[in-house]
Write a structure and sequence with these properties.
The chain contains 15 helices and 5 strands. It is an alpha/beta fold. A 5-stranded parallel sheet has the order 2-3-4-1-5, sandwiched between helices.
């Protein structure tokens, strides 16, 4: 049995692949009945045995292949054995990104299910973003939704990563309120970042830290500032009115952000935003914890 998943939209095809694998394992199939195959570990003899029958293994197997058709030799073996793979009791999932039409059409003739995942845009993209935001249990505004769709186009991996950060970054709607620890919105710190005043930013960071403000709270403010700078920088060629319509930001924030963004290259802002996300998610933990991570980031202004 063959499932054929392919196309440029690797995020949705990966999701579909995961659903099939979870469904197989959820039916009581042992995990050792599941094989992942790529160009590095492809074994022609083992592939042939799995394609011909499952009886010698004593049960049904799921074989998930990844980009193996990019190798001409492996591709020939697969295409030459499609009839056996189709008739096998085992389940084969061919996951590919770039596949020529002739190859895709040939595999599709033997597959139980074929799905091409093309990049989505427009209304479909916005509906997808809303659905993903619902999964993350937060309401995304129309302005924020339009900004995310415009900024990342059809890159669903980047959109999903930003959506995961948005609930944390949504301090803009409460930036004029005092936080529980009395730190306030910390505009002086974010202004120091805007002006790339490294020494002042570090001094203010130490001041708030000595006041007992949690590092996570400080990170929120910096993350919002970096995200705003990055967004405005990408829209710098448009009028303030257009930027406001797209982002929902206040005119004053747009003016300050345009001035501040002019001091950064777009690559620097992208790097700053991603490093703040990494610090928040602790995906790249730094010695000394979050406090040191923030200090190190400010040091690189």
């Amino acid at each position: 049995m063959i499932y054929f998943l392919y196309g440029k939209d690797t995020y949705r095809s990966r999701q579909n692949l995961g659903e099939i694998v979870r469904g197989f394992l959820g039916k009581g199939n042992a995990s050792h009945h599941f094989f992942r195959v790529n160009t590095d570990n492809f074994d022609p003899d083992f592939f042939g045995e799995l394609a011909r029958s499952s009886s010698m293994f004593g049960g049904k197997y799921l074989i998930s292949t990844e980009r193996i058709l990019s190798d001409p030799g492996i591709k020939k073996i697969v295409l030459d054995n499609l009839e056996s793979v189709r008739d096998s009791d085992n389940i084969f999932i061919f996951w590919e990104e770039d596949t020529d039409k002739e190859t895709a059409d040939k595999i599709a003739r033997y597959a139980k299910k074929t799905q091409e995942f093309l990049p989505i845009s427009g209304v479909k993209l916005k509906n997808w973003i809303r659905t993903e935001a619902d999964k993350l249990k937060f309401n995304i505004s129309e302005a924020e939704l339009s900004r995310v769709a415009l900024e990342h186009d059809s890159d669903l991996w980047a959109i999903r990563k930003e959506l995961e950060a948005l609930p944390l970054g949504h301090i803009s709607d409460k930036k004029n309120k005092l936080s529980a620890d009395g730190a306030g919105p910390m505009f002086d710190l974010t202004d120091a970042v805007l002006s790339r005043n490294r020494e002042q930013a570090i001094d203010l960071f130490e001041k708030y830290k000595n006041k007992g403000v949690p590092a996570e709270e400080i990170l929120w403010r910096l993350l919002w500032q970096a995200k705003t700078l990055f967004t405005v920088k990408k829209l710098a060629g448009k009028s303030p009115a257009t930027i406001k319509k797209i982002t929902g930001l206040h005119e004053y924030v747009i003016k300050k952000s345009l001035d501040g963004a002019a001091r950064f290259r777009i690559e620097e802002l992208d790097s700053l935003f991603r490093r703040l996300l990494d610090a928040r998610n602790k995906s790249n933990p730094l010695a000394g914890g979050l406090d040191y991570g923030i200090f190190y980031l400010l040091l690189k202004l």
